[in-house]
């Protein structure tokens, strides 16, 4: 198991779903985890309880990761409580509406770009200075296979995920001389709470199209993130790791 003892990690959007699984996976490997949330304090505290009951260290921090003041305040609070951040997992997202071209607006695109471009920028700016000084850091974006699949009526989300990948690659090259790695984990369709009302036949149809003939689960994503956060991945940067049972090839 990848040892993250002594490291401090921030996982955005960690009150539920993939974010919760990622936070728990990092904590299980020894990292002290800052659990970011915006909507539900109760859910965030449940993530913290899951971690602490297993012997880990975690605290919840409320912040809108699209807001510069909120991000700055959260970063200072984490440093004071847990220490300087070593690992930044950019997972937070919002509503993901489908829009036909006829109904698509620029605002629809901006809403997604605020999560996948603006938020990562605001968060990285808070930690990049100290990471450069220490010549250590792990930046991990949570992307999606949709950029490879070109999902119809979803261009607002797909284009923002493409921009997120662009950030990953450019930042990786800029920060490589400082031994800071920047990578992206691109999940396939991993059922979370937001998919509870999706028809089972839709999930079955997706699974049938995956070469491995089934959907993944939270642990598949958290394991990939933990690996990229570890010293075992210190020579991997600028990469997109697709975790989708072979549903896309690069």
Describe how the helices and strands are arranged:
Layout: E1 8-11, H1 17-28, E2 32-37, H2 41-53, E3 57-62, H3 68-81, E4 87-90, H4 106-134, E5 137-142, H5 146-149, H6 155-175, E6 180-187, H7 200-209, H8 218-229, E7 240-243
Parallel strand pairs: 1-2, 1-4, 2-3, 4-5, 5-6, 6-7
Helix pairs in contact: 1-2, 1-8, 3-4, 4-6
What brief labels describe this structure?
seven-stranded parallel beta sheet; 250 residues; alpha/beta; Rossmann fold; 46% helix
**Broad shape:** globular
Low-confidence stretches: none
Distance between the termini: 27 Å
Order of helices and strands: EHEHEHEHEHHEHHE
Number of strands: 7
Name the CATH architecture: 3-Layer(aba) Sandwich
Sketch the major β-sheet.
7 strands, parallel
Q: In DSSP terms, counting alpha (H) and pi (I) runs of 4 or more, how many helices? A: 8
pLDDT averaged over residues: 94
- Output the structural class: alpha/beta
Q: Name the CATH superfamily assignment.
A: NAD(P)-binding Rossmann-like Domain
Query: How large is the radius of gyration?
Result: 17 Å
């Amino acid at each position: 198991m990848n040892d993250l003892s002594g490291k401090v990690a921030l996982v955005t959007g960690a009150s539920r779903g993939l974010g919760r699984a990622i936070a728990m996976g990092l904590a299980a490997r020894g990292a002290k985890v800052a659990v970011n949330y915006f909507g539900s304090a109760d859910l965030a505290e449940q993530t913290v309880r899951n971690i602490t009951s297993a012997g880990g260290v975690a605290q919840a921090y409320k912040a809108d990761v699209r807001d510069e003041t909120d991000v700055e305040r959260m970063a200072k609070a984490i440093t004071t409580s847990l220490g300087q951040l070593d690992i930044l997992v950019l997972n937070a997202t919002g509503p993901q509406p489908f829009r036909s071209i006829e109904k698509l607006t620029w605002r629809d695109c901006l809403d997604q770009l605020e999560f996948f471009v603006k938020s990562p920028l605001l968060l990285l700016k808070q930690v990049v200075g100290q990471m450069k000084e220490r010549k250590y850091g792990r930046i991990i974006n949570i992307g999606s296979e949709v950029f490879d699949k070109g999902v119809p009526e979803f261009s607002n989300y797909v284009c923002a995920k493409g921009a997120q990948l662009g950030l990953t690659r450019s930042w990786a090259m800029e920060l490589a001389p400082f031994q800071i790695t920047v990578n992206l984990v691109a999940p396939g369709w991993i059922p979370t709470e937001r998919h509870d009302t999706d028809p089972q036949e839709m999930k079955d149809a997706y699974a049938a199209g995956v070469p491995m003939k089934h959907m993944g689960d939270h642990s598949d994503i958290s394991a990939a993130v933990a690996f990229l956060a570890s010293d075992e991945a210190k020579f991997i940067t600028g990469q997109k790791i697709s975790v989708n049972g072979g549903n896309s090839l690069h």
